[in-house]
Design a protein that fits this description.
By secondary structure, this protein is an alpha/beta fold. Helix 3 packs across helix 4 and helix 3 runs parallel beside helix 5. The N and C termini lie far apart (56 Å). It has 2 domains: 160 residues, Rossmann fold; 67 residues, no CATH class. The protein is built from 10 helices and 10 strands. The chain is 37% helix and 24% strand. The strands form 2 sheets. The protein has a 6-stranded mixed beta sheet, sandwiched between helices. The protein binds adenosine-5'-triphosphate. The site of adenosine-5'-triphosphate has 11 residues, from strand 2 and helix 1. This is ABC transporter ATP-binding protein. InterPro entries: AAA+_ATPase, ABC_transporter-like_ATP-bd, ABC_Transporter_VariousFunc, P-loop_NTPase. GO terms for molecular function: ATP binding; isomerase activity. Pfam families: ABC_tran.
Amino acid sequence: MSIEISGLSKAFGKKHVLKDLDVTIDTGQCYCLLGKNGVGKSTFLNCILDLIQPDAGTISLFDKTYMLDPIAVKQNLGALCEDNPLIEEFTGLEYLNFVSRLYRLAPEEAAQRIASLTNYFFTDRESLHKNIAGYSTGMKKKVGIAAAILHKPQALILDEPFTGLDPIAAQLLVNLIRSYRNANRVILISSHDLNYVEKVATHIGVLNDGQLMYNGSVQEFTMNGANLIDQALFQLLLPHHNAETNMDWMLT
Ligand SMILES: Nc1ncnc2c1ncn2[C@@H]1O[C@H](COP(=O)(O)OP(=O)(O)OP(=O)(O)O)[C@@H](O)[C@H]1O
């Protein structure tokens, strides 16, 4: 297995956000983690990224663990975090060059990859010479995504990658994720954008009350396409919800 998580638990004070989770994600899969606000999706991803220390459990990536070989694990990971921290004083190009040096890419190789990624995502190339502080949310996200991919990681972990992207950039990201998936990498995404999840997911996890209410293939989740992902998710999380009776006051 490429990503193997076993017995993962995390509490913040008395709130048990993740309870003894087991998840395996194999190469060629794009696993999309879904669930209501505040259910623990980012916490789950941040544990895998070693940004949050779990209370219990083991995480192994390509048979290596943080405990035994943290550098090897991190070399194989590309990450876009929910708050997308960048260095705002840098221009987009300076930031990507900085990241390429962190990963010790040869300068020529780095220049080639940066040119290809920025050509792909940025029609407005001028903006890449301006400070990130002045970028829109979507532009920052595109820089964050490019930085996550630059070192060609085996596993890509993306927290809310579609949020804030315009439809063109989002579709470009869909195409990129599909190519990445087909190149036998492994992708883990947390997202509320189910239209895009529908286009990239091979597997779905639905987190609720600290546990996975569903953990399996997208085909099984949608009953072989009989349901859309949003319908299947709604039925799973709110099977008895009746919006009309709850909101009558609004219509009179
Ligand atoms: N550092 C922290 N300290 C205390 N509580 C935290 C901390 N980080 C997260 N939480 C709590 O853990 C729970 C899960 O948060 P998390 O951000 O993982 O949810 P999420 O599913 O990603 O939410 P959303 O869909 O709204 O982004 C929330 O109740 C949140 O308030």
